[in-house]
């Protein structure tokens, strides 16, 4: 099984955490869409990550991939049982994938971390302040009302809905913003429980290979971190400005 996409992407991180949780072996092609080649476009016509290749099957979109993994490899499920709980789980995942990722990635992580390094573009400080002082707190207020007091959203096991909230907020943390435990105590305790899981911690351990390593050394750094890196890549050496991350 091959996963195409950088582990720093919240969508890729979500899938990697699910693979670790289920104990499934995979190889990783750690590209970002900025560096995807023409073959990547054939795999992912919207130029989004992650892409899963399982034999001759190609699956796009992190939600579709997660649901495929849950159906094809049902041990350690990440979706709850029952129509009501599944509907709630899917909605919370959608909130994480859309609204929260918009805030954490496009309003914070991309302008503060990605754009200055990849496109040599400085961030708009006023826009960053709006994200951290207004937009993200508003989203965290909504999340705090729904955060579990113990365990996870749908029982004792972590699920896709938990990961869809934790993954973008991990990107916000990389960019220097974390929720205030005094204002959002349930959310911060819940995020700490997720962060302590080996399946999630393994994704965090991949970050230095991406964030603290030159592009030409990242694949080797990931291998040194214990990641099975694909022998061939769908990446290029030069970025493209037109991309999508989901």
List the helices and strands and how they pair.
Elements: E1 2-4, H1 10-22, E2 27-29, H2 38-43, E3 51-54, E4 57-60, H3 62-72, H4 83-119, H5 125-146, H6 160-174, H7 185-195, H8 198-204, H9 207-211, H10 218-224
Parallel strand pairs: 1-2
Antiparallel strand pairs: 1-3, 3-4
- Summarize the biggest pleated sheet: 4 strands, mixed
State mean pLDDT (0 to 100 scale).
94
Distance between the termini: 19 Å
CATH architecture of the largest domain: Up-down Bundle
What are the salient characteristics of this protein?
single chain, about 250 residues, mainly alpha, Glutaredoxin, Glutathione S-transferase Yfyf (Class Pi), Chain A, domain 2, four-stranded mixed beta sheet, 4 strands, about 55% helix, about 5% strand
